[in-house]
Design goal:
Chain B: Pfam families: IF4E. The structure holds two protein chains of two kinds. Chain A is mainly alpha-helical. Helix content of chain A is 16%, strand content 0%. In chain B, strands 2-1-3-5-6-4-7-8 form an eight-stranded antiparallel beta sheet. The chains are: A mainly alpha, B alpha+beta.
Chain lengths: 116, 228
Amino acid sequence: MSSASGEPKVQGRDIPNRRVVLNDISQLPSEYSTTPGGTFFSTTPGGTRIVYERNFLLQCRNSPLAKSPPANMLEIPGITSPAKPGVKENGDHSLKSVKEEKAKVSAEDAQFEMDI
Amino acid sequence: MRVVKGRTGNKAKRPHVAGVKMTDSRLKIEDDIDEDQDDTFRPAPTPGPGEHPLQFNYSIWFSRRSPKNTTYDQSLKFVASFASVEQFWSAYSHMTHPGDMMGHSDYHLFKEGIRPMWEDDANKMGGKWIIRLKKGLASRCWENLILAMLGEQFMVGEEICGAVVSVRFQDDILALWNRTASDQATTTRIRDTLKRVLHLPANTVMEYKTHTDSLKDNTSFWNTDKFI
């Protein structure tokens, strides 16, 4: 279209690639979404789907950002906070931040309205 | 038409259970939930610097059957939403693992905006794969299932709606919900990926149930279609 009207064509860019030689079938990754030699880009051709392998996700478990519970997590005894004081690990920690956040939010129940 | 109110609205009207001796510990625990908490949906925070965003935002829901939760909708509690890998771990690491949960309880991990209900617009044409687990396997299998979902390992476009782990008396049950029950290419691909990520033996019987059928017989795990 643009060339017909005399405007310069948009310059395309090559998709970056890398060649990995496999010597044996056992070197093929077991997961569909993994390329030989490790996942190259975390996006797929034709889109920008964000793909993570299990091992990578597990590594992120140790991130400092993951050490404390979300500020506004619902407090459910035995599930997100201890059933009894001192029963579950991290209990005091999560209890405190949930309580702090709780003061800020009003207890409206619009979410649970439905027609039956 | 009747409007069912959530637990905060129901507080005063909750049926009195006098005469019923609450020997079941799960009833006591359910009663401990602070009624003044906000259990309505809250969107996930935008991922900050250093966080790894997910393809989709997800919400965690919890449900537990108890005498006072007369409907499924009433028993369903929104716990937290997350938009990044780190936010996921932040919530997940501070929740009891399914294998340690008591009673008739479920975790639901669904894409933000989809309620874990058959009737939701995203679910109503859909269905779910069901995997029944012997006791003792739920925590590990649930983690493998949700990591595969969050990491977009199923490769079926927008088809995945969410995952459920249901802790029951005899066994524990995993389910993975997708949008279009009639799309056989998608359901087959999901089934094969499930077998792979959960390390299921090749001869594992896989069960599929459409939500239309669930609405008809009002059960989640009965009358399923079995595939070997």
